[in-house]
Amino acid sequence: MTTTERRPAPGDDHEYGLLDIDDFVQGDGSAGHAGLPRTIIGWLSTTDHKALGIAYIIASMTFLLIGGALAGIMRAELAEPGLQVVSAETYNSIFTIHGSLMVYLFAVPFGFGLANYLMPLQIGAPDLAFPRLNAFSYWLYVIGGTIMLLGFLADGGPADFGWFAYPPLSGAAGSPGLGADLWIVAILLTGTSGTLTAVNVIATVTMMRTPGMTLFRMPILTWNLLVTAFMVLLAFPVLSGALLMLLADRQFGTHFFDPVNGGSPILFQHLFWFFGHPEVYIVALPFFGVVTEVFSVFSRRPTFGYKGLVLATLTIGALSTSVWAHHMFVTGEVVLPFFALTSALIAVPTGVKIFNWIGTMWGGSISFEAPMKFAIGFLVTFVGGGITGIMLASPTIDFHLSDSYFVVAHFHYVMGGTVVFAMFAAIYFWWPKVTGRFLSERLATIHFWLLMVGFNMTFFFMHFLGRDGMARRTADYPDIGDFHLWNLIASLGYVVLVLSFIPFGISVVQSFRRPMTAGADPWHANTLEWATTSPPAEHNFSWLPPIRSERPVFDFRWLNYEDVGTAGYSDAWLARQDHDGQWFPLHQWSRHPDEEPTAASGPQEQPGPGQRPRDETPEQSP
Amino acid sequence: MIAGTTGRIVAAVPALAPPVTDQADEMDRVWNLFLWIGLAVLAFVVVLVLYVIIRYRRRSDQLPRQKHYNIPLEITYTAIPLVVVLALFAVTFVTVNAVVDPADQTPDLVDDVTAFQWQWSFGYPDAGVTVVGGPSDDVPELVLPARSTVQFDMQSLDVVHSFWITAFRFKHDIIPGTPSSFTVDIGDQAGDYPDAGVCAEYCGLDHAFMRFAVRVLEPDEFDAWLADQVARAQSTEADT
Amino acid sequence: MRLEAILWTGVGAYFVTIGLIYAAVGGDTAGIVLLFAAVGLGGLIAGWTWEWTRHHAPRIVDRADADASDETGIVGVYPIASLRPIALALGTSALVLGIAIGSWLSMIGLAVIASQVLLLVRDTDT
Questions:
Q1: Which pTM does this prediction carry?
Q2: pLDDT tens digits for range B108-137
Q3: Residue C60 in contact with residue C78, Cβ under 8 Å?
Q4: What ipTM was predicted for this assembly?
Q5: Which residues does C101 contact at the CB level (< 8 Å), separation at least 6?
Q6: Among all residues of chain B, which has the CA nearest to that of A171?
Q7: Using an 8 Å Cβ cutoff, are A343 and B85 in contact?
Q8: Do B61 and A618 touch (CB under 8 A)?
Q9: Which among C38, C71, C85 has the least Cβ separation from residue A132?
Q10: What are the structural domains of chain A?
Q11: Is B22-100 a domain of CATH 1.10.287?
C-alpha cells in the first residue's frame, strides 16, 4: 500500500490536458474562512450552513469524548470481577449516560453536521432552505445535550435507567430523581431539533438543487441524507410522544405505562422501538453515503450500480420501519414470524450495498490515502456486525442472546463500522475542503491501525461473553469460565482505542499550522463540493460546471477526452455534442448566454474530436 | 476456538452450561447453522475485499475502465442473498414455536416464578413450597426434575425483569401486569448449574446481582427434595 | 417534480402494504396505528408534490441539459445572521424544562418565545 509523490497541485493538470477546477473557481479561499463567523456573537447568531455544520461536528465530537470517558470508567470497573471502581448505582448512571450520549448526542448529530455542511454544496445550493430554522435546531440540540449532562449535578445523580428508559423503572416510583426528568427533557429537545433538521433537508433537496442536478444525478450521500431525513420525520416524533407520556406519568399523575393502574409498559416498548430501530439506520445511512463517495474517488471509478444503490437505500429505509419488535422478541408479546422475516430481509439490500462498494473498487486503480483506509476499515467491521445481526434476527437464537453481551458486541460492530471508521473517513476526506489544509497521512496510518486493533480487542470477545451468559448493563459479573479473561482483554482494548485518538489529535493541531494550499479539488473527486474554493466562500458557488451525470467535477476535469465517458457509459456526454458531433467549446458553459466571452474563462483551444486520453496526473500525498 | 456450543477458548470449566432442555438442543443446532453460514459469508466478503485491494491497487496513472453498472451481476447478488436469507428464515420459522407455543400435554410440573427488585422466588404450587432468595449472596436455587415437562408461570411485582436460564438457551421478559408463561421439556441429564440463572432485563440498582442457581435432579430425588421442603416449611410453622 | 411525487407516493404505498400485512398477522395496535400514520406522512409530502406539478411548469432543475446559467437571479433572501434562533431555542428549552423544574420556568420560556416570535415578524420583509 504505497503512495506516490505528492498531491495534485494547481497547474499539474494542464500538462496532461485535463482541466483544472482551480482555473475556473473564482477566488482562492485565502480571504480566510470567508463564510465563517469570527466573533462569539457571530457564532451565536450565524445561520450559515457551513458554520452550523462545523458547530454540529464539534459539539457531537465533544459528546463523543465525554461518552468515551464514561466508557473508560465502565471498562475499568469490568476489568476485574467485583466492584472496585464505582458503586453499582454510579455504574448504572454511567452506562445510561454513555449510551444516551453516543446515540442521541453524538451519532445522529454528526450525521446532521454532514447534512448541514455538505448537502447544499453537493447539490449546488447556497444554503439550506430555512437557515434560521437550521440554527434553531442546532441550539436546541446543544442546550438539550447540556441539560442531560446537568443531571450529574442533580440530587440523586443523572438518569440511570438505560438509554431505552423502560417503564415502570423509569416511572415516578422507579426513578424518582430530577436527573431522570432532565434526561427526558433533553431528549424531547434534541428530538425536536432533529425533526426540524429533517424538514430542512427534505425541503432543500427537493427545491434547491441547481439546474441539471436531477434526482438521479445527486450524489449518493445526498440521497442517503434524504432517506435519513424521512426516517427522522417518521421516528423522532414517536419518541417524543412516548417520552411526553412518560413525563406526564412522572409529573402529572397519568398512568400510561403504570401497570398498577391499568397502564401498559409494553406500549412504551413498542413506541420506543418504532423510533429505536429507524434510529440506528438514521445513524448508519449518512455514513454509507460517505463511504460510497470515498470508494469511488480513491478507486478512480464511478459508483458501481448507482441506481441499485439508491433502490437499496430506499429499501433499507422502508424495511427499517417494519422491524422494530425484534428488540422485543423475548417479551412474548410480539408477532415473531413477521419481525423475524422483515429483520432477515433487511440483510438483502445491505448486502447489495456491500457488493456495490466492492464493485466500485473492482477493476479500479486504488490508492490508500487516509479516507480510503478508514472506508475499508468500515467495510470489514460493518460486515462483521451485519452477520451477528442476521443471527439476532432469528428469535430461536435471540431468545438466548437478547440482552446479553452478544448484542453489545453486535451493535458496537455496526456502530463502530459506521460512526467510528466511516466518520474518520469523512473527516479525513473533507478536511481539505473545510479547512483548506491537509491532515498528515503518516499520523493517519498510525491512527487507523491503533483504531483497528483497539476496536477489535475491545468488542470481539464480547460475542463470547454474551453467548456464555453474561447479561448486559451489569456492574459486575461472576468469576466463571472465561468471563474475567475476556473482560480484561476488552478493557485493555479500550486503552488502545484511547491511544488511537492521540495521533488524530496531533494531526488536527498540526494541520492548522500549515498554509491553506488544498485548492478546490485536492483528491480529484467527483461531486460539486469540489467545484468551489477550499474553504468555500459565503454562499458557496460563484461558478458551476455543467452537470450531466452524478460526477460533474470528474466529467469537467475530463472534458477534453471524449473517450472517457463515451456514449453508453454516460448519457451526459451526448448532451455536450451538437448535431454535427462537434464538442461545445468550454466558455459557452460558464457564462450567461448574453455575456461576451472573456479572455480569462479557461483554456481557449477547442478540443479536437478523436483526441486520445493520456495518463492522468499523479495525485497521491506524502 | 469459535466452533461448538460453548464458544470457550481457555477455561477448564466453561461458563455456559450444556443444553439442559430438548428445546435448548434444537436452539444450539440452529445457532451452529447460523454461525457457520455467517462465518462463511464473512470470510467470503473479507476475502473479496482483500483480493480487490491487492489486485487493483494503483500501479499507474492510467484511468481505469469506467464501468457504471452490470445489471445481471447486480440481480445475481441480490437474488442469492435473498435465497440464503429466506432459507435461514425458514429454519427460524420452523423452530421458533418449539418453546413459545403452549405444550400439547399437561405439564408434569408447574413452577411459579416471581421476580422483584432484586431477587427471585420460585413456587411449587402443587406442593405448597416456595423458595426465595435472600439478601446479596443468598442466591435461590431452582430445582427441577429431569425428563419432565415443566411450565413456568411468571410474574413481576414491580418493574420489567427477564427470566434467563442460560442452560435453557431461553429467556422470557416478565412485564408487571402481564403474567406470562412458557413450557420446556427437561432432558435426561441431572446436573448442577450454579450460574445458569440471570436476570436479563435491567431492573435497577442490584440488577447485576439478581441471579439464581439451577439444579436438575432425577425425578425420584426431586420428589424427595420437594417432600423435604414441605417438611421444613411445616416445622418452621410449628416453631412460630 | 414528477419524480419526487412518484417517490413519495411509493413511500405511502409501502406503508399501506406493510400496515395491512401487519394488521393481518395480528400485530399490536400501536404498531398498526403508527404504520398507517406513516402513510399519512408520506402521503402529505406526496400530495404536496403532486399539487405542485399540477400548478407549475416542469422546473429547469429537472431538465437533463440545463445549466447553472439558465436560472440566474436571486435564489432566496436569507438573513446572514440572526439572534432569533438561539433565543427561541433558549425559550423553548425553558418551556420544556419547566415541566421538570417548575412552571415558573415554563412561564419565562413562554415569554421569551412570544417576544422572539414578535421580533421574527418584525424581521420579515414581505
A1: 0.90
A2: 888 999 999 889 999 998 888 888 887 767
A3: no
A4: 0.96
A5: A178, A181
A6: B159
A7: no
A8: yes
A9: C85
A10: 3-512 (1.20.210.10)
A11: yes
